[in-house]
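User: Let's play a game. I give you a shape written as tokens, and you guess the letters that built it. Ready? Here's round one.
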């Protein structure tokens, strides 16, 4: 019994937080990888943001269909089309996240991209001394997203980037090179793992849907 408990404690508790359908497409391959090694990792899934909004299709159901257990659902979106609503949403997330992170006590939190929800996640985790792995930092788009993305990168402890230029940008921001992994874009994994040309065709066909018929 003691040996079994010790083995459980040795597993790395990884919390993956997803805010919308777009970031889930990037996080899902990583989540499947973590889930496939239960002897090493203890996966906790936190869902917030537009995943839980009716108008956006309640996309948290995609996560459940992929057979991931959602440990926490946080309603953090304040309705509105202006910048003030976005700021209020960040504030609401910051009010709700501490209880969840304290309960889960993850060894590391995975955060993706440049959404304001992700900024709230990174801020809460950093202030609670939780290690953060930021996916797809170092990108440049020329919008407010850059400021949010770079802020998350500075709060993060580890980075998984898509390109060499993103890696160089993080290094120029004084991030530790040894903590940066050039991993590529995780949402391409399914396509790149197909070994037969027919497999590529089927995947592309399913992605493009009705538009595929017009490409023949």
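Assistant: Ready! My guess for every position:
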């Amino acid at each position: 019994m003691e040996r079994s408990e010790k083995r459980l404690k040795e597993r790395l508790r990884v919390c993956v937080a997803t805010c919308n359908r777009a970031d889930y497409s990037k996080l899902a391959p990583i989540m499947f990888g973590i889930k496939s090694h239960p002897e090493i990792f203890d996966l906790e899934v936190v869902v917030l943001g537009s995943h839980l909004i009716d108008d956006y299709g309640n996309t948290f159901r995609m996560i459940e269909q992929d057979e991931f257990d959602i440990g926490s659902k946080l309603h953090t979106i304040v309705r509105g089309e202006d910048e003030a609503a976005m700021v209020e949403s960040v504030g609401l997330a910051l009010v709700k996240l501490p209880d969840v992170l304290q309960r889960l006590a993850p060894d590391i939190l995975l955060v993706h991209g440049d959404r304001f929800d992700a900024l709230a996640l990174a801020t809460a985790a950093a202030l609670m001394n939780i290690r953060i792995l930021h996916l797809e930092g170092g990108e440049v788009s020329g919008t407010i997203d850059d400021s949010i993305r770079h802020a998350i990168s500075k709060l993060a402890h580890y980075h998984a980037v898509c390109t060499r230029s993103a890696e160089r940008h993080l290094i120029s921001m004084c991030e530790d090179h040894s903590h940066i992994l050039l991993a590529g874009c995780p949402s391409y994994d399914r396509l790149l793992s197909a070994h037969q040309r027919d497999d590529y065709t089927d995947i592309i066909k399913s992605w493009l849907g009705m538009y595929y018929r017009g490409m023949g």
